[in-house]
Amino acid sequence: MTAMPKKVLPGHIAAALAGAGGSRDSAGQPWQGRELAGEQKYHNFDNDDGAIDPSYAAALEALATGHGSEAEVVASLSTMRVFIPIVAKLAEQTVGANGLVSDKESDMALVTVQGPDGRLALPVFSHAAALTRWHCDARPVAVYAARAALSAVAEEAQLLVLDPGSQRPFVIRRPAVWALAQQKDWLPSYADPVVDKVLQASVDALGHPFVVSISATAGEGIGSQWDTLTKPVGQLVLGGGTGPELSVTLTLRPGLDRSEVDDVLANLQGFWAANEDFALAVDSVQIRLLSSNPQN
Q1: Of 45, 109, 229, 272, which one has the fewest beta carbons inside 10 Å?
Q2: Model pTM score
Q3: Span 12-26, average pLDDT
Q4: Cβ(256)–Cβ(210) under 8 Å?
Q5: Which of 45, 48, 50 minimizes the C-alpha distance to 19?
Q6: Is the pLDDT of residue 118 over 90?
Q7: Can you tell me whether residue 264 is helix, strand or coil?
Q8: Residue 85 domain boundaries
């Protein structure tokens, strides 16, 4: 009789089980060698060992050394597998004859967290070990990053956070989350010519003689701290932060009083808010005011 080939668990599941000390199911039967999916493929990642995707790792390294960009990091996620943490959520309790309370039913639920600015974020992980370190009881579910972005939208989360708690976390903001979910290319707002066009149009529409110019650059909020072996206090990386991403510099001629400046800003911000392209492309804005008077 010909021996049947030995069945091997997907790498990330084996790693998760080994890390949790659970090589057997709840009945004490070993997982190893069992066929869980019959003749059907178990999932899209049968041969996945749970390691970080080389393209994503390379994009992070380029960002850390100042040779990469946020757009390149997000682009590397377009065909990448990530892990979503799933945890058991109590649905119903029961009281036994001895008066002790025990769990009767539980559901599996996505984990979401609240960001520093109060927005909801969906944590996802580039490799299984990072998820286990973050939450040892969470079940790693492998999905494409685009599917994770869809899950974030469904959960009304405006942020995806890659590898929270690690040395190199990366935050994907709402416009990039939506682009990833739709499998579209994404540019950060400070590098998007469409955003620049809207800014110029807002000044033209305002028609205020005291407005000299308007321009956009990266906001201070795109910076994030990454830990390194050589810099224990952390390295500032220009990408993946949670603060304002777009800095709009408005240059005014001298002579405006406070109420006139407030009026200019209110009209500009009203124009931006009403523009669909701007609303879709921009996550958050900070405004810098300059005077064209060289003495100021």
Answers
A1: 229
A2: 0.76
A3: 50
A4: yes
A5: 50
A6: no
A7: helix
A8: 54-181
